[in-house]
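Handout, section B. The chain below has 273 residues.
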Amino acid sequence: MVGLVIVALGLITISFRSPTSGALHDLQGAGSTVLSPFQTAANRIAQPFRDAYDYIHSLANARAENKRLKKINENLRKKDLQRVAQAAQLPAVLRLLHFEQGPVFPNDFHAVNAAVISPPGGPFAHSLVIHAGSSAGVRLDSPVVSGDGLVGIVSNVFPDTAKVTLLTDPDSFAAALDVHTGVRGMVHTGPGGTLILDQVQKQFEVKAGDKLVTAGTHNARYPDLYPYGIPIGTVTSVSALDTANFLQVQVQPYANLGSLTAVGVLVSKKPHR
């Protein structure tokens, strides 16, 4: 092995130092001529392997690029969905801001606006979950509104979320006032799951089309959970049975309780007890 290395170095040295013509160059040319067919054959044999390598290499690069582009496309699709979701909430948020700046917003409260992250799951579900909790200032028993009217009340609070019991829950009651006649009553769920204005005696006048708002507190010893003036709904029909003591008053709520995307929690400015 050492001898072959020495001979190779010697031939290289002679090749560099020899003139451009002579016996050695003639011998090199003859060797090249003799070996040329073998080189051509070797290139032809090796070419398919080189082509296969280039194909596999390019295929791997194409797959990697395809994976990268798919990842970019997925991220763009997620961003588009987020924009669509935010755009869907925009009308509800604008109505909330309009209500908050309007004349009927209660003075002793401020609003904590929140997205609805778990809407009612069906006609017999009467609660939802919002993306705001005690860390945002939400308190238990705080009234909840949409930009259209009363939604319900906070029935459970967690650090970052809160449960809202809707006005349609069988155990929900709200003292209401007919702004046209001054008649008071209790809005709650009646037969069939619809809202009714109850406890209205027959001698009082209530008509279809009358607007109802929360009556607020009229006895300081028994404060109401809902402040005065929050829109509740419109009277749709009034009837009376001979055997009943009270009118049968059907109410259509202003808030679309089945498709809420954003709500406002009315938090009292008074210190929390």
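Note. The mean pLDDT is 81. Compare this with the example in section A.
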